Backbone:
């Protein structure tokens, strides 16, 4: 195209065979200089009397002008939101019927600041076009809705769980939505964001760069790169911070920085994509479960991006569905990565619960340790809604345990503790609180039982432990348990209940062992009984 070209001269050149022929149903890239380029389409006579639509897909960057027989032009662009007939994902020229003999259609692709992508042309009846347009709009809307919904859900989890991994995923997915929204024109039709007109190139390029940045920061935490591939963490994080710098350079308006950013962006994008692919493969091979979710969702999208890039060079002209596939694959990736995030959250919760169990359980007997039992018992005592419920506390101390340890060794003592803990657990209700208080001492808190019922439980525990017939020495001495009982009174705390139950247990020790006794508020309970507590418990 030259500066002296006019629509009439372009049509004359077409009739003289100067233009290079092409198949309009296949993707074709039309090189453009700073003046644009001319394209002529010769429709057949079939359907010339009915209303038809000439569509250009995918919607090219910049504007396209269609000239009629009187050299009057109609100009459409992806960001044009004023047309009566909108082409969702493509440019659509409405052609009235009754044209008689079809004339060549002259199109002028105006110059654009971006690389010209390949397009194909389709001339069809208005009804067929509206049906296909409605199908595309429904498909694209569903895909974008899935991506936005997954992103917003992740943002909610980022706030609730205070996990920045979900925030990086949100940023990555929303940037990808913007990229596809600009490339397909969805931001303009049907969303009608006309205020973006003229800046879609900058917005789209910035969104691409930021999506890679968020993807790098996301994979760093999602795939636990620090654990599985520490050598790759620094370059991955560096990529995450390098892309925003390139975006800032492009937005400065300083020609030198803008040119440098345009020079750097494509090589960094290519190297960044390869780095993320390598990182996911390495971490997955070394045991990162989430890496396989990332690969399952991201690799197909990477393949589609490579195929689309190949199309820009003139390859694969028949695969005109790649752009739509990128939208659908974005929704697929959003779902897969959301499942990966859910799996990650469940895994972290399971690990946290496992650590909590280990922290709350006595390592030897596998019942509650003193700290965990005290917390649970305090919570039970301070339940405001059930402040009048009956609660009993049993303080248990094994008899002759020191002798057992001295004569048979600590291994035998440990086996005896494990066996006794198992017996106590089996005799008590699952809702009763049983814990190891320390050494050979156990505590149990029973709820909704009166003193008589609690004494029956304590007596049963004494008999059950004695029936284990765990020998202490070479004589007939057997391991048994002394139990003190305290019922909750007005104003009781856990400490006061334990103190009274301990005193009742001490009374049992001084009165023959191997039975239970309830605390009694009587001075005579300890009258004339002030010797030191026996060392041989």
Residues:
């Amino acid at each position: 195209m030259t500066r002296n070209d006019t629509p009439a001269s372009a049509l004359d050149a077409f009739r003289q065979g100067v233009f290079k022929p092409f198949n309009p149903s296949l993707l074709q890239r039309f090189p453009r200089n700073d003046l644009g380029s001319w394209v002529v389409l010769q429709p057949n006579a079939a359907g010339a009397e009915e209303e038809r639509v000439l569509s250009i897909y995918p919607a090219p960057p910049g504007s396209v002008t269609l000239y009629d027989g009187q050299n009057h032009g109609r100009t459409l662009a992806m960001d044009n939101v004023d047309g009566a007939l909108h082409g969702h994902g493509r440019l659509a020229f409405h052609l009235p019927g009754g044209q008689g003999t079809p004339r060549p259609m002259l199109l002028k692709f105006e110059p654009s600041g971006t690389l010209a992508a390949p397009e194909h042309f389709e001339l069809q009846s208005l009804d067929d076009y509206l049906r296909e347009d409605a199908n595309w709009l429904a498909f694209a809307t569903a895909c974008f809705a899935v991506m936005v919904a997954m992103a917003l859900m992740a943002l909610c989890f980022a706030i609730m769980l205070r996990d920045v991994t979900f925030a990086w995923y949100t940023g990555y997915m929303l940037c990808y939505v913007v990229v596809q929204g600009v490339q397909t024109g969805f931001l303009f039709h049907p969303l009608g964001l006309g205020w973006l007109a003229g800046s879609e190139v900058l917005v789209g390029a910035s969104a691409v760069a930021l999506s890679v940045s968020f993807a790098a920061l996301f994979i760093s935490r999602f795939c636990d790169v620090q654990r599985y591939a520490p050598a790759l963490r620094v370059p991955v994080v560096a990529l995450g911070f390098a892309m925003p710098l390139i975006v800032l350079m492009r937005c400065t308006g300083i020609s030198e920085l803008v040119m440098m950013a345009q020079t750097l962006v494509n090589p960094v994008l290519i190297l960044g994509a390869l780095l993320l692919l390598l990182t996911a493969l390495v971490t997955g091979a070394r045991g990162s479960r989430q890496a396989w979710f990332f690969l399952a969702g991201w690799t197909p999208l990477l393949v589609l991006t490579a195929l689309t890039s190949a199309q820009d060079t003139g390859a694969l002209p028949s695969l005109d569905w790649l752009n739509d596939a990128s939208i659908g694959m974005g929704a697929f990736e959003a779902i897969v990565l959301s499942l990966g995030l859910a799996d990650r959250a469940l895994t972290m919760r399971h690990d946290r619960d496992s650590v909590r169990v280990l922290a709350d359980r006595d390592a030897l007997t596998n019942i509650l340790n003193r700290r965990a039992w005290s917390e649970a018992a305090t919570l039970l005592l301070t339940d405001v809604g059930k402040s009048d419920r009956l609660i009993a506390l049993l303080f248990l101390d094994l008899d002759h345990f020191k002798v057992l340890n001295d004569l048979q060794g600590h291994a035998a003592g440990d086996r005896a503790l494990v066996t006794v803990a198992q017996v106590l657990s089996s005799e008590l209700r699952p809702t009763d609180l049983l814990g190891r208080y320390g050494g050979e001492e156990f505590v149990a808190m029973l709820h909704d039982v009166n003193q008589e019922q609690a004494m029956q439980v304590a007596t049963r525990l004494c008999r059950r432990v004695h029936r284990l017939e765990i020998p202490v020495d070479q004589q007939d001495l057997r391991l048994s348990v002394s139990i003190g009982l305290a019922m909750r009174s007005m104003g009781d705390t856990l400490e006061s209940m334990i103190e009274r139950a301990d005193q009742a247990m001490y009374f049992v020790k001084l009165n023959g062992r191997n039975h239970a006794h309830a605390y009694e508020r009587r001075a005579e309970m300890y009258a004339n009984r002030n010797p030191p507590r026996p060392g041989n418990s």
Notes: The chain has three domains: 7-126, 131-358, 370-526. The domain at 370-526 is CATH 3.30.70.270 (Alpha-Beta Plaits). The first strand starts at residue 37 and ends at 41.
